[in-house]
Amino acid sequence: MSASETVNPLPNMSQPITVPLSRAAIFLVVALNSDFEARTTIRSFCADFSSIFRAVDFRDIEGGLSCVIGFGSNAWDKLFGTPRPAELHPFREIRSGDRHAVSTPGDLLFHIRAKRMDLCFELATQIMTRIGDAVTPVDEAHGFRYFDDRDLIGLSMARKIREATSQLRPC
Asked: What pLDDT shows up at residue 150?
């Protein structure tokens, strides 16, 4: 290998993007802190993530636990340098009719899904325990199947509840 070649710090491993729908989900969005230690922590976390995942997944091997990790383009550059994936770019706002995907801050997205919320919660806890000092939380949304398995509406409900309760004042 020549000195100009870059070694990929991440193993080539596919993520479970197309797993079946689940009853529960947690979306974590975090911003990478700017210090060198934060970048080192995240790189180490990436190398160890499969073992962290397996430790939680093993608690219920039929629980359908999955986790997809997404890296923002700025975070990728800070963490891994070049070559950058060809289609990776800063997320832009998207509008389509009544639907609106806002451009939000955040460097890493963890999309955690399972048949049971406790598995999602445990994996999110393990992730944040491991990387908590290296990141600043930006958003956390919980999704769940509602009553007769009609819809995974918990994401919007959790935000509405959080917004409503933030306006409450103690008696």
From this structure: 52
